[in-house]
Amino acid sequence: MSFIKEYVERQTLHRRNLLLMSAYGLCGAVLGAAAGPGRAGAVTANPRIAWSYRDRTNPYWNAIVSGGNAFVRSLGMPESALINLINEGSSEKSLADIQSLLSRYGSGVALAVDPNDMPNCRPVVEAVSKAGAYVSTIWNKTDDLHPWDFGDNYVSHMTWSDVGPSEQTARVLFDAMGGKGGVVHLGGIASNNPAIERLAGFRNALKAYPNIQLLAVQAADWDTQKANQVMSGFLTRYGDSIKGVHCASDTMAYGVIEALRAEGIEDMPVVSYDGNPQAVELVTQGKILATVFTNPYWAGGITAALAYYAATGAFKPSAEPHEHREFLGPTILVTTKDAREFKARYIDTNPQYDWKNFWALASK
């Protein structure tokens, strides 16, 4: 359990260092010949591969980028060939970094990106399309934005169906509470698709448990430190009325557990989401009752692969059916009953994936 306290303490320093990494990844790359912004898209033998994401200190995003690195290695390139654009949860920085990348390399870019929030996806896609480059997105986009409306340049969008799995974790929590008592929910960034869906799943489960009392719902923005503060506030406000905690991500659960420990509470039922290695280990110990694995390693590699192989002309996105351009990633519920078996298969070693089999793990 000591890793949670250390994790909270390290975040500020790591974030500062990773901002420097982000700048190096963009500015330190060697310039190459590229079409200027606004030119028609054209295939290229060696596009620049980039991943735009929130935070490498977060285990989820670390796994995403590890998958991206694995894909780059599969091409015979060093991991340093992957350009890291770290936006620290800022949609403005996300778009600015991508625009800067496109101004350098034009159509010679294969970009994988989580736009950080739904509204930011459209300007990102429009910038990439205008430059004639190629982009694959994950998690966040508005419902009226579709890859097939942008020809080949908007290659694909992958998200996850979080409502059902989040409802499952809530049911695990409510059962552990004996079907009664007060519960609190800590959510992600309010405009994020997964935050919205995970809260919806939680609320769905509440309908089947009339003796569970919802005390509070509050966003902690996927952040461990903020979750720690939010949970501390809940404990001050509601005290012993809290009998269980529903977290929309593992990293927020770490902050919750640390806040509980500070009050001498070691046996509060807690559930989370994302299936990070540390969270799975806590599930094996019974400290977290359930989490949901979304296979970020595969998602990170396959999203980069889709953008790259579209950029090289290995396949033509516009020739694919719509279900290959907007699709769901995999989810696995991990509980105390199966956590050790799951850990051996997915955490202790990463499975080997065929990065050209783009939709192998896509949910049907």
UniProtKB/TrEMBL annotation:
Entry GO CC: cell envelope
Please give the superkingdom of this protein's source: Bacteria
As one GO molecular function, the record gives: carbohydrate binding
Q: Which PROSITE patterns match?
A: TAT
Sorted alphabetically, which CDD domains does this protein's record hold? PBP1_ABC_sugar_binding-like
Q: Does the keyword Signal apply?
A: yes
UniProt keyword annotation of Signal present: yes
Any Pfam family the entry gives? Peripla_BP_4
Location of the Periplasmic binding protein domain: 49-313
Task: Name its cellular compartments.
Answer: Cell envelope
Principal subcellular localization: other
Mind listing the UniProt keywords for this protein, alphabetically? Signal
Q: Which InterPro entries match?
A: Peripla_BP_I (IPR028082), SBP_2_dom (IPR025997), TAT_signal (IPR006311)
Q: Which family does it belong to?
A: Belongs to the bacterial solute-binding protein 2 family.
Instruction: Give the protein's recorded name.
Output: Sugar ABC transporter substrate-binding protein
